[in-house]
Amino acid sequence: MYTEKLELDEVVNTLEDEVIEYLSELVQIPTFVPPGEHYEEIVDLLIPHLRESGFHCERVVVPEEIVERMKEEIPGLSGRRVNLLATREEGNEQSLDIYTHLDVVPAGEAWATHPYTTVRRGDRLYGRGVADSKGTVAALLMALRIMNELKIRCKYNLRIALTTDEEIGIYSGLCYFADNGLLQGKYLLCMDGDNEGICVATNGVMNWEIVVNGKACHSSIPSLGINAIERARLVMDALERLKERVEQRESKAPCSPSMTQVTGQKHIKPIFNLTMISGGVKENIIPPSCVLRGDRRYIPEETEQDVVKEFEAALAPLKSELELEIHCYPGYPPMYTDPEDGWVKEVQTAASAAFGVHKPVTGVQGGLDVAYAVQKTGQPVCAFGIGSSIESNAHGADENIRIEDLKNYVKFIVMLLQDRR
Ligand SMILES: [Zn+2]
Fold it and tell me: Is 17 helix (H, G, I), strand (E, B) or coil?
């Protein structure tokens, strides 16, 4: 059966309280990370809903030894990393993976309402994770239920991956899925992101560290030592010249209209930042070392090797006069799906129709774990979320979404999945 937009509007309107109730149940489980202690609970909550919609559900637990390694980088992690894989095979020609994460960032201060209670005020819902990204999970559950109840045929075999630890940015549940062959769809829909556009491009991330070595001595006769902090100025000058060169480039991937409004940029750009500096022992000791740290975000047109090479080349001339240690720590790779790809068009058409406004194809300058996943799988991917990057205040106090957008997202999923033949 094929459902017209007007009929769908009406159905979703009558179910408004129920989809809000789904969301409240999800928000109530405090899956903030670190520590990430409540994954098992939220997966247990989700399984009956998905079983009712005909899914086979599997708990995928990230092995202890992997979690132990993560704990070395991020202190304060505890609890089992329980992910959910829900599959429904219906003999369809095409298969689709749908992904988002179940963790949220800690609530932080300055909330006007209780962060783990979903509160309705005016036309909005407030609570930690409503935008990033539990709202999409509630909408997905409701969309699947509606399709079941109205007997709307789904055109894809579905694999739903609801995973752990996205917010700590090292090795998320999704990375584990990708490394273990659990993503098998022809396409991938990432529900993490904002609803301003269909995101097809993200920057890659590389953190870096430079140690400038000097020699300590009494500050009253500085010529006996080497002042690492004063000498670090040469490094900073070189980095500034590198930054200028890097940030002149731009990707062919466009940025969202709201980003253009804020920055004047039309396309995403590479970024180079010096963000941390430390050194020195005491006022009267010539500092023996100075450590500089920062990040480099690189566009899909650049490669990790190029980025490392360029970074090292920028510092090479200093090596004759300074003792330097240079370290690069690659993070998530960049992501790029051709905007003309048929899958992107499908998502764009459904999203534009459901939200009643044209959704442009965009890129963002941040990085996503989904980029790691598709580097392994080669799947065409696009990200479309539920909140607004400007209004929703994801990761801040009073995170919120519009109730209208929650309902629009339910419609988006139905319109994307329904078989129109
Ligand atoms: Zn997110």
Answer: helix
CATH number of the 204-330 domain: 3.30.70.360
29 Cα: distance to centroid of ligand 1 (angstroms): 16
- CB 115 within 8 Å of CB 128: yes
Structure token pair of residue 328: 């690069």
For residue 193, the CA-to-ligand 1 centroid distance in Å is 6
What's the N-to-C CA distance of the chain in angstroms?
A: 9
Measure 392 CA to ligand 1 centroid, in angstroms: 12
Rounded to the nearest angstrom, the distance between the alpha carbon of 13 and the centre of ligand 1 is: 26
Give every CB contact of residue 17 below 8 A, 6+ residues apart in sequence. none
Residue 245, classed as helix, strand or coil, is helix
Integer CA distances (angstroms), 236 to 133, 276, 294, 315, 404, in order:
38, 12, 11, 10, 49
Cα–Cα dist 299/220, whole Å: 48
Domains 5-202+334-417 and 204-330 share a fold: no
Q: How far apart are CA 414 and CA 418, in angstroms?
A: 6
Confidence of residue 1 (pLDDT cuts 50, 70, 90): low
Phi/psi-derived region of residue 122, left when phi > 0, alpha when psi is between -120 and 50, beta in every other case = left
pTM score, whole prediction: 0.91
Distance 192 CA to ligand 1 centre (A): 5
- Ligand 1 centroid – CA 209 distance (Å): 27
What is the CA(129)–ligand 1 centre distance, in A? 8
CA of 244 from ligand 1 middle (Å) equals: 30
Q: How far is the CA of 36 from the centre of ligand 1 (A)?
A: 14
Q: For residue 3, is pLDDT > 80?
A: no
Measured in Å, residue 288 CA sits from the centre of ligand 1 at 41
CA–centroid distance, 283 to ligand 1, in Å, is: 44
Band of pLDDT at residue 420, cut at 50, 70 and 90: confident
d(CA 368, ligand 1 centre) in Å: 9
For the stretch 401-419, pLDDT in tens is: 999 999 999 999 999 999 9
The CATH class of 5-202+334-417 is alpha beta
Tell me: pLDDT of 57 over 60. yes
Q: Break the chain into its structural domains and give their ranges.
A: 5-202+334-417, 204-330
179 CA to middle of ligand 1, Å?
20
